[in-house]
Amino acid sequence: MPRLAPSLFRQARNQISPFAPLLLPVCRTLDSTANELRWIKEHVNSTDSLVPRKLGIWQACLKREKGIPLQYILGNQPFGPLDILCKPGVLIPRPETESIITHLTTLLPFSSSPLKILDLCTGTGCIPLLIASLLPSTSQILGVDISPLAISLSRQNLSHNISLSHLPLSASKSITFTKSDIFSPSFLSSLPFSSGELDILTSNPPYISPAGFNKNTERSVRLYEPKLALVPDVNLGKGYVCLPEDVFYARLLEIVSVLQPKRVLFEVGDVEQATRVAEMVVRGGELKNYAGTVEIWRDDPEREEKERISLRNNEEKVEVKGRGNGRGVYFWRKDY
Questions:
Q1: Where are the domains of the chain?
Q2: In what order do the strands lie in the sheet containing 306-310?
Q3: What does CATH list as the number for 77-332?
Q4: pLDDT tens-digit profile of 124-144?
C-alpha cells in the first residue's frame, strides 16, 4: 500500500478536523475520512456515556487507527432495510452479500404461502433476516451456526429489527436460530425439513484458503474478524476431494442432495472458486435434479451484463450474470 503524503495529513487536519489525521491511514482518502468521522461523531452523540464527547470521539478514532473495523466501533451495519448489530467475534455483513440476496428475492414467484428457508453458517443472521424483510409473507426460517456467539447475536438482531419495525412482530415466531455443526453426522436428522419441502437454502460459508487469508485479506480482517468464519478448518477436508477452501461447499452439496431444496444460493470468494463450485454441482451424481440450471453471479447480478463460460472438466457452460467479482453460485431444481 503506497505511503500517504504529509500534505494530505495537513489537509485532513485543516479541512476536516484535528481528529481526521488519525483516520486517514485506514480511510486513505479525504472523502472517506470525512464520512467515517461523521459517523463516529453521530455514534458518540447518540450514546449515553460519562466520557466527555471529545474524548469519546478521540478514543473511537484511536481504535479505528489500529485497524479495528468501523462496524465494531459503531456497533452496527446497515443491510438493506435492516440495522444489523455487529460485535467482535462475528463476521461483519458485506454489501456484496446484500446485493446477491436482494437479487435472489426478486426471482421468487409471488406466493401468499409461507416459504421454508434454511441458512447455514448464518453469522449475524443478516441473510435470513434480509430475506424475511423483503418477502410479502411470513416464512418459516431457520439460521444455523456453530458459533454460540454468532447465534446469540443473530437472535439479538431478530429482536432488534422487530423493535425498529423493520420486521413484523410475527417474525419472532417464524424465524429461529440454532447452534449446530453442519459436519456432524446427526445434523440432517436434526433439521425440521423433509426432503423436497425446503424452498430456499442459502449459505455464506468459510471459503478462504490459509494462504489467501495471510496474503490477500485486509489487515483489519486478519486482525479483528473471526478466522473461524473465513477459513475452513483443515481437518474438515478429510474424505472430500476438493481444495481445502472448498470443503464447506462439498458438505453443503451433500446436504442439498438430501434436502433437495427448490433454490440454492452459495456465496463464494471469486469467479475461480465459483467455477469450481459449479463443477461440483454439475458432476454431483446426487444432484441430477439441478443439471443445466447453474448460474454464477457477480457482485451486482442486477446488471444486464451476461456471458457464458466453460467448466474446466466438463463440456457444459454456465451463465455468468452481472458486474464485478464472482460472488455467488445459484442453481434450482428443474422440476420447480
A1: 6-66, 77-332
A2: 175-179, 140-145, 116-120, 200-203, 263-267, 323-332, 295-300, 317-321, 306-310
A3: 3.40.50.150
A4: 999 999 999 999 777 899 999
Task: Tell me which residue of 43, 99, 4, 61 sits closest to 327, measured CA to CA.
Answer: 99
CA distances from 297 to 198, 244, 319 (A): 22, 22, 8
3-class secondary structure, 205: coil
Q: Is 0.90 surpassed by the pTM of this model?
A: yes
3-state SS assignment for residue 173: helix
Region of residue 170 (left: phi > 0; alpha: psi -120 to 50; beta: else): alpha
Band (pLDDT 50/70/90 cuts) for residue 109 is confident
Quickly tell me which residue has 481526521 as its cell. Answer: 20
Cell of 151: 447465534
The helix (H) or strand (E) run that includes residue 9 is helix 6-11
Task: Quickly tell me which residue has 423493520 as its cell.
Answer: 166
pLDDT in tens, 246-256: 999 999 999 99
Helix (H, G, I), strand (E, B), or coil: what is residue 202? strand
- Chain centroid to CA 205: how far? 8
